Amino acid sequence: MTKFEALGLNKALLNAVTDMGFESPSEVQEKAIPILLDSESDLVALAQTGTGKTAAFGFPLIQKLDHNSRTTQGLILSPTRELCLQITSEMQAYSKYVNGLSTVAIYGGASITEQARQIKRGAQIVVATPGRMKDMIGRGLVDISKIDYCVLDEADEMLNMGFYEDIKEILSNTPQDKSTWLFSATMPKEVATIAKKFMHNPIEITVGAKNAGTNNVQHEYYVVSGRDRYPALKRLADANPDIFSVVFCRTKRDTQRVAEKLIEDGYNAGALHGDLSQNQRDLVMNAFRKKQIQMLVATDVAARGIDVDDVTHVINYQLPDEIETYTHRSGRTGRAGKSGISMVIITKSELRKIRSIEKIIQQSFISKSIPTGIEICEIQLYHLASKIKDTKINKDVENYLPAINEVLEGIDRDELIKKIVSVEFTRFSNYYNKTKDLNSSSDHSSSATNASSNGSVRYFINVGEKDGYDWMSLKDFLRDTLGLGKEDIYKVDTKDSFSFFNTDEVHTESILSFFTDFKLEGRFINVEISKNPGGDGGGGRGRKGKSKRRGKERDKGNRGKRRDRGASKGGSNFSGKRRSKKNRSDFF
Ligand code: ADP
Ligand code: MG
């Protein structure tokens, strides 16, 4: 007897399992399938993405349905059209040997009449996105009044995307005595509420650790004066050269305006809001998916359906009117097991809203400062160095090499590096050289001292995201490697091929000496004191200081068009061996 047989699956399903090449059930399948086959209980199952949840509800559903009846007996709700199609094709594969069983997909953006026709032919299983489902119920094109099973798949995502009301309405069209099976990667409060409201004594199974849902998203706020919002946004983008983000604005007008300004200033940006035609929206979304757009400026409504997994940052250009909406925004990042950052640009008067949001998300915000010009220059410099290292050599260059060598004769390697880097870097440095501190509520001076006034030191380290670190794992790595305590490493900021972090000054000496000769997987790990003071006047540990009136930064400037910033996948240090501290600071 195979392990699948032991779960109680019938012959038709076991044949499909063999065809699909599944050898043994996954944990969630092992736990859920026997329960669902043997009882009519409601079920809440928590398991991460990719753990085989579809088959965990799909197998029992197929086995329990009456395939001789054409009545719709099972409804599966799923958050996006892509998932809807994916589940449908999985269900069709599972039911390959079940005669007469039909699974139909219902989702937006495709012909509703065609979908209605398929339903009319008889579909025992309907897989639907909430929006289209509601629509079709309203028009009498689908009947779910006799279903026995309702599956809420990716429940956390559906709620994240604001489908609560739709789900409620859909469920009100289903019979009381059906069974409801809820599957979710995480269990935020909203999912618990659904379980409580719409389910009866559900059996709960959990695979792996329970996750509060937003743990992999770091929440940060930046206090600026109202008119500095836009320059602040630009700085946040400049300080994260590989940013892939959704920028939220409150109104369609602001959305359009901010996107236009960003484009004018040379960023790969695009707008997404309700005044655009469906066609325009599709174009923008396609460009975003392909990462041709790095900053997607969007309204809350328009961003609902965004199902892109790699979003690194959510930027709240303005807070939403309803603070509850914040959860939906921040849920656009930190998906599929990745970590993400949700940044909020606020004015001082909005600080109390941050406290209210903290209560909703049950997580604390970190108070951060808008990066100073020098910090941005430093980041851009390393980014540039990585880009040079990774640039593929163009063969045609070789023809000109003798002539080029002649021109560059007599310049030694160090000087040549400095010059090459300066070609692009000077533009940034000129732009940011004379800019002011944008932070409204901070006490740090913008002068570049190594240790800031509160005794905190910022470090540069030559490992980053391309080495597989995010801010969480790098923090863990540093803590474990250095044997420091939980709170000793903070403000960890990972970039593509390098990162920054802070410690209190007391640790500086031991950290620097520890890393003078430290190798990881055969590579020297380089840690140096960063030239910028550590950004955060608030120290990431609360707010303090008096408000200072800051000058307005020029919006447009002498920055040229930026090239494909996403293209650089960064090397770690451009000389191929360890840089000396002296050389590094020489660039400024
Ligand atoms: P989830 O919904 O939990 O994110 P899926 O149901 O989409 O996960 O399954 C992820 C992938 O794993 C799919 O390609 C699916 O075909 C495959 N899969 C599911 N169960 C098994 C199994 N028991 N053995 C091997 N592969 C499986
Ligand atoms: Mg799934």
**Which kinds of small molecule does this entry bind, naming each only once?**
adenosine-5'-diphosphate, magnesium ion
Mean pLDDT: 83
> At CATH's second level, what is the architecture of the largest domain?
3-Layer(aba) Sandwich
Largest sheet: 7 strands, parallel
Strand content: 5-15%
Count the beta strands. 20
Radius of gyration (Å) = 27 Å
In the CATH hierarchy, the third-tier topology of the largest domain is known as Rossmann fold
* Overall body shape: elongated
Strand order of the largest sheet: 3-4-2-5-6-1-7
Gap between N and C termini, in Å? 70 Å
* CATH homologous superfamily descriptor of the largest domain: P-loop containing nucleotide triphosphate hydrolases
Residue stretches low in confidence (pLDDT < 50, at least 5 long) are 210-214, 442-452, 535-588
Helix- and strand-based class? alpha/beta
Total helical segments: 22
Number of discrete domains: 3
- Helix fraction, binned, reads 25-40%
CATH level 1 name of the largest domain? Alpha Beta
